[in-house]
Amino acid sequence: MIDPQGLEKKVIFYVPSPAVFPISITGKRCELGCPHCDGKFLESMNPATMPPDVIRAFDTAKAGGAKCVLISGGFSRKGKLPIEGMISAIREGKARTGLKVEVHSGVVEDSTIKALGQAGVDALLLDVIGDDITISEYLGGRWSVADYRKVLKSAKEVIPVIAAHVLIGIDRGKIRGEYNAIDIISEANVDSCALLVLIDEVVPDPMEVERLMTYAREKLTNLHLTLGCMRGKGSNRQLYEIMAIDIGLDGIANPSRETVEYALAKKRQIINENGCCFFCP
């Protein structure tokens, strides 16, 4: 592990709920049905499959004390969220409530990105996968690694915050394109990057996770780099949090009590923040 001596001492501990109100514009439906998810992550989101539903969801979020809404849902075989028909509703919902808006878009077209920017979207979230075989054979998708470069470039021009995600071990626990994904993110000059560790039945080797975290910290020196919500189960989850502290990541979502105590013992300056881990207060 990296010696924390001399690293930035600040670490932000994020608590997303109830500050973030997640909306699925496809309900529980997803064309991909990837083995690591198969729609189960959509079940915990608030369904809003028609434009009036989206506007009402904004109102519900505001009434419940949320700070922002996360627009997500199931993806098409082309790797994108079918959001085009919801953009006017997003614009109206934001105007009515003043809430921040995050969109988990996938590899949408330039015209969609421009429309999202004009609607007042504050942040674009993009899972960057660095291996074409993983996309086609594991995810069953009909897009390519090159599409991520195009989306990141286009989004940076019109949306205030671009938050990339790297899914460690997405292809049945193997590390295949994750290093390439980090390189793509580095070249795109985005604002933040969240590292996630898949919770499928086959998990990546923790030593490989540590090496990848270290590479990300060394490569993404100017980015807000965090450990996101999804990061394994049981003892591995705790292990990844300790790695994140030692390697010098800037934040952790939903840290355990033991990790908070470990950070204090390491003399890290703790900042508590309600919201998503890619925003840097």
Describe this structure in words.
There is one protein chain. 36% of the residues lie in helices and 21% in strands. By secondary structure, it is an alpha/beta fold. The protein has an eleven-stranded parallel sheet. Strand 7 (161-168), helix 6 (178-188) and strand 8 (192-197) form a beta-alpha-beta unit. The chain is globular.
Derived structural class = alpha/beta
Strand count, sense and barrel status of the largest sheet are: 11 strands, parallel
> How much helicity do the residues have?
25-40%
Report strand %: 15-25%
Distance between the termini: 27 Å
Radius of gyration: 18 Å
Q: How many H/I helices?
A: 9
Poorly predicted residue ranges: 1-6
Spatial shape:
globular
* Secondary-structure element order, N to C: EEEHEHEHEHHEHEHEHEHE
Number of strands: 11
Q: Order of strands across the widest beta sheet? A: 3-2-4-5-6-7-8-9-10-1-11
The overall pLDDT, averaged over residues, is 92
Which helices and strands occur, and which strands form pairs?
Elements: E1 10-15, E2 20-24, E3 46-47, H1 51-63, E4 68-72, H2 87-97, E5 100-104, H3 110-118, E6 123-127, H4 132-138, H5 145-156, E7 161-168, H6 178-188, E8 192-197, H7 206-219, E9 224-231, H8 234-247, E10 251-253, H9 257-265, E11 269-274
Parallel strand pairs: 1-10, 1-11, 2-3, 2-4, 4-5, 5-6, 6-7, 7-8, 8-9, 9-10
Helix pairs in contact: 1-2, 3-5, 6-7, 7-8, 8-9
